[in-house]
Amino acid sequence: MQISDRKKKILQAVVEEYIETAEPVGSKTIQHKAGLDCSPATIRNELADLCSSGYLEQPHTSAGRVPTAKGYRLYVNELMRQQKLSVEETEAINASLSAKAEELDQLISDAGHMASLVTNYPAVSITSQTPATIKRFDLIYIDPNTFIIVLLLTNDTVKNKLVHLPFSFEESMMTRLSAVFNASFTGITEDKISPVLISSSERAVGDTMGLCSVIAGFAIEILSTAKSGGALVTGEANLLKLPEFKDPEKAHRLMNYLSDTSNLSILPSLTQDGDVKVLIGPENVAEELKDSSVVLASYNAGDNMKGLIGVVGPTRMDYSSVAAKLSYIAASLSKLLGGGGSPPPGFGKLMIKGDDNDG
Amino acid sequence: MQISDRKKKILQAVVEEYIETAEPVGSKTIQHKAGLDCSPATIRNELADLCSSGYLEQPHTSAGRVPTAKGYRLYVNELMRQQKLSVEETEAINASLSAKAEELDQLISDAGHMASLVTNYPAVSITSQTPATIKRFDLIYIDPNTFIIVLLLTNDTVKNKLVHLPFSFEESMMTRLSAVFNASFTGITEDKISPVLISSSERAVGDTMGLCSVIAGFAIEILSTAKSGGALVTGEANLLKLPEFKDPEKAHRLMNYLSDTSNLSILPSLTQDGDVKVLIGPENVAEELKDSSVVLASYNAGDNMKGLIGVVGPTRMDYSSVAAKLSYIAASLSKLLGGGGSPPPGFGKLMIKGDDNDG
DNA sequence: GTTTAGCACTCAGGAAGATAGAGTGCTAAA
DNA sequence: TTTAGCACTCTATCTTCCTGAGTGCTAAAC
Q: Could you tell me the pTM of the whole model?
C-alpha cells in the first residue's frame, strides 16, 4: 500500500508531537506542527485513513490520535530525521569514556551509565565473549604455602588467583606444574578437563597434595564463567519520570524484568556489528517488553568479544535522538577498545588489554 | 520518662500491626492483637498518652495510630523479638552464597542480591578497603611485544594487566624491571610514585621505551582505585510494591538517590564489625532517607577489608526479620571470606583469596 | 483511682452527578 | 478535493453526598 506524502507528513507530525507530549494529538495541532496549508478538516480525513490502515489509533472516539507500533515503525524506517549530537553531548561522552579507559569493566559499566544519562532511559550494557581457551599458564611462587596462578586466555584476557595452602611445597614444583599444565591444559575447552587428565598430571609432577586439582579447578572455573558475558542495567529510576509508568504496577513489572539480567542475554543475538537496532513494542519477543521499545547498538570490544549497549523505554521514545546517542557511544567504545580505531594517546594506554580485579 | 508495661505492649502491637498492614491501627485491633483484657476505651486512653509522649501519631483526628520514628526506635531497642530464620531461609542463603565462593566480586554481588531477595527491599552491598600497598611485582614475558604485569598487594589481592607494545624488548629486560620495581616500588603509597622515581628506574634498567612508565602507571592506577571500595545496589524494583511508594515521584527520589553510589560511601563509617545497625527515618543524615529506614550489617572480608550489606525501606519495615536475615548473611560472608571462620570444604576452595577479571 | 459503656463528632475515601472542553465525524457547500 | 459548520462523544475534573472507622469526652461502675 502506498502512502501519500501528505499522509507521511501528518504521521511524522503525530509521532513527534506525541513523543514530546505523551498526549493524543489533534488535527489542529498537526496543522501547526507540520505547517500544512490545509484545514483541520482535511487533516481529519487523512487521519481517518491513517487510522484504518493501522498507523494510528484513537484511545477513544473524540480523542486525538496516537501512533501504533506500525506507525512508529514507518517513522523509524522512513521519516525519522537523522539527529546530530550537540558538541556538548559528544564532548561529555568522550570525556566520561576516555577518562577511565584503562579498566575495561569500568569502561563498559561507564558506557551504560553514560547511555542512561544522556538518554534519560534505563540502559543495559552487555558483553558476550566467544568461548576462549587457555593460551598459557604461569605459576608464581610466593612462599612455601602460597603461589599465584596466572592464566592468559586466547582472547588476551588475563586471570589470576592467589592460592594459599595449609601445607608447604617447593619452588621446583611450580616449574614442573607449569610445564605440565602448559603442555596438557592449553587450547582445550572446559569439558576436556577430566579427572583422568588431572590424575595423570598429578602422577607426572609427583603431586600428592592436590595442587593439580586446585589449578585445574581454577581453569575450569575460568573457562566456564568466561563464556557467559555480563549484563548490567543502570538508570531504572528514569522510568518513573515517564507518564506511561505513573502506575507503579507497570513500572514494577518492567523493572523486575530488567533486574533479572538473564532475561537480557537474548539481546546480543539481535544486533549486527555497528548497526543500531530498534525494536518497537510488540516486535519484542518478551511479554514484558511488548509495550516498550528497545534501542540497541553493538560495538566491537576487541578480540572475540562483542559488546552491546541499549536503552529501554516506552514506545513513545525519541528514537532519533536515542539512536544517535547510542550509535555515538558504541562507535567510541569500538575505537577505545581497539576494535577498529587507533587507541587514545597518553601515558600507559598503549593497546593495553589487561584487567584489574579485586580478589 | 518511664513507660508502663501495658503501654509497651500496646506500642508493640501498633508497630507490628502497622508493619503488616501499612494502615493506621485502631484501639479495637490492638485489643485483639495484644490480647489485653481491657476495653478499647482503656486502650484509647493509653494511646492518647503514647501520642502525647511522641511514640505514636495520628494522620488526622479520628484515624488510628501510626508509630513515629521515636516509637520505632523504642520498639527496635526494647520490644522487638529476636527472630529466627527458618531452615529453608538459611539453607537458601547458604546455597546461594557458597556456590560461587571462588569469586569474591561475584560473592559480594550475590550477597547483595540475596539480601534483596530475602528481605524484599532494595539492598546495598559495599566494600571498603583500607589502603594497600604493593607487596611484589612479577612480570611475565610472553613474546617480544607482550608481557603481563602481576601485582600482589599487601591485602593479598592480585592484580594483573596484559601489555602489548608496538616495539619489541628482550626477556632479560623483564628480569631487570622486576628487580627494580620490587626494590623501589613496593610498600609505598600512590603519591610516592613520582616522575623522579620513574626516571631513575628507567636509568637503572636502561629503559628507553617507556616500559617503566607503563608499569608505574598501572601501579598508580591500582593503588588509587584499590582504596575506594565498590558499592552496588540491587532490587530497587522492590520499592514499587510498597504502598508508601505508590507515588512515583517519591519512589523516583529515593531510587535516584540510591543509584548514585557515591551517596552510599558514608554508610561504612556507621557500623561496627559484627553489629547490625538500624537507622530509622530522620536518624539518617541524608535528606532523601529521612522517611526511610536503613538496616546495615557489616562483615569482615579478610585482610584489611570491610564489607557492608544493608537494605533500604520505609520506616514501616520488618526490622526484626530484616535484621536477622542481614545478620545471618553477614556472618556467612565473614566465614566464607576467612575473616574468622573456617573456609568451606571442597575442591579448589582452600583459603583462596585470588581474583578473576575480564580485560 | 481505674476502667468501661455510651455517644456525639470528625474526617478520609468512594460513589454519583454535573460541567467543561477538546476533538471528532458527517454533511453540505465551495 | 477541500472546507466550514455543527451535533455528538467522551474524558477529566469538580462538587456534593454518604458511609464507616475511629476518636475524645463524659458519666457511671468497679
A: 0.81
